[in-house]
Amino acid sequence: MEVNVIGAGLAGSEAALQLAKRGFKVNLYEMRPNVETGAHTTHDCAEFVCSNSLGSYDITNGSGLLKHEMEILGGELIEIAKACSVPAGNALAIDRHLFSQTVTKQIEENPNITLIREEVTEIPETPTIIASGPLTSSKFTDAIKKFTKSEYLHFFDAIAPIVEIDSINFDVAFWASRYDKGEASYINCPMNKEQYEKFYNILINAPRIEQHDFEKGAKFFESCLPIEVLASRGVDTLRFGPMKPIGLIDKRTGEKNYAVVQLRQDNSAKTLFNLVGFQTNLKWGSQKELLQNIPGLENVNIVRYGVMHRNTFINSPTLLKPTLQTREREDLFFAGQITGTEGYTESIASGLLAGINMAKLLSKESLLDLPLDTMLGALTHYITNPEHDNFQPINSNWGIVPPVELPKKERKNKKLKGELMSNRALESLKNYLNSTF
């Protein structure tokens, strides 16, 4: 039996590979290069558009737990990501081009997957997973809107600049990871108070790219706010956010810094680095002025400027079951950011679950409805909870998972809390899968 997977992004690629390894024939549709998105720069599958980081791999972190759950569930892209990783301390960051090229190669060489380069404008009536992403084409958006009988919610997503390492001044910049955890994987540009205040004044007065009429009124992802939006909340907001200096000391000087700009490796050749937390919608000339006022980046060569684009997601609480099936049609699934899951890891995980569950549906087996104390179970139950009054995109975090009891003196011990919740989740997932299979 054939399955349609619409969208060869992270979720769609994972879903297609899950179905293919279970023996199902997959028609994987990708509209690029015939229809471009305005955010992608290649035509490869599973392209990372914004950051190149999948977030923490630490088991005591919500995102880290989700990665370990994906490994237990047999995720394909998580293994490719580990093979294409670049140094990033406790985070799992990847060479984005190597990663997407590897995924594309596996899909193109898989005898059970047919990669079809054309735009889908109507929802197929046969078994289908819609993973068209937050940049779904306008024609297919209209088809989904017609099916769901509901309006869309919109939000903005912003991308950080990427620079060449050879243009960074290492007389000023230094290598370190926060609190010296793991390898010294980040480039750090330190600022004193005077330098920070100059930087801040340039930032808050810099002109921004104007929004189109159709973009006005859309919201921002709270975890992906443009740096100029963060800065507008107060002069010290950045110093307690993406530019916090805590745990970052240049061992050459031993001085504590007022603020620090971090850069993270973006490719395996270690020639390109992106600015952490510097998503922006400033005009390009203003971006260049701003970056060149960061100590260590005075003569930096910017190979990609930051941009901002509108994303779209469905009202999942009224439309989906925790299995990621639509309530109206059991052989139609949604996966990825279009469901309101925020983040790369979350997109891959939802594609993993949708692919497994589609295979189970077609094999007449019970679908996975994961326990609430697992991160993926909590995430899917959260986005499909019909009691939401004002649904907003969500990422993996401890707030959506049932709490654990801690001794009174340990209640503020976040590491212990994470360890206990992760151990509980992994045991729960293994027990659930053993009972299911």
Tell me the layout of helices and strands.
Elements: E1 2-6, H1 10-21, E2 25-29, E3 53-56, H2 62-72, H3 77-83, E4 85-86, E5 91-94, H4 96-109, E6 113-116, E7 128-130, H5 138-148, E8 153-158, E9 162-164, E10 174-176, E11 186-191, H6 193-205, E12 219-220, H7 227-231, E13 259-265, E14 272-275, H8 284-291, E15 302-304, E16 308-313, H9 316-319, E17 332-334, H10 344-362, H11 375-383, H12 414-436
Shape: globular
What fraction, in percent, of the residue positions are helical?
25-40%
CATH architecture of the largest domain: 3-Layer(bba) Sandwich
Let me know the number of strands.
Answer: 17
Provide the CATH superfamily of the largest domain. Answer: FAD/NAD(P)-binding domain
CATH class of the largest domain: Alpha Beta
Strand content: 15-25%
**What is the chain-wise order of helices and strands?**
EHEEHHEEHEEHEEEEHEHEEHEEHEHHH
Outline the low-pLDDT stretches.
212-217
| CATH fold-level topology of the largest domain | FAD/NAD(P)-binding domain
Overall structural domain count? 2
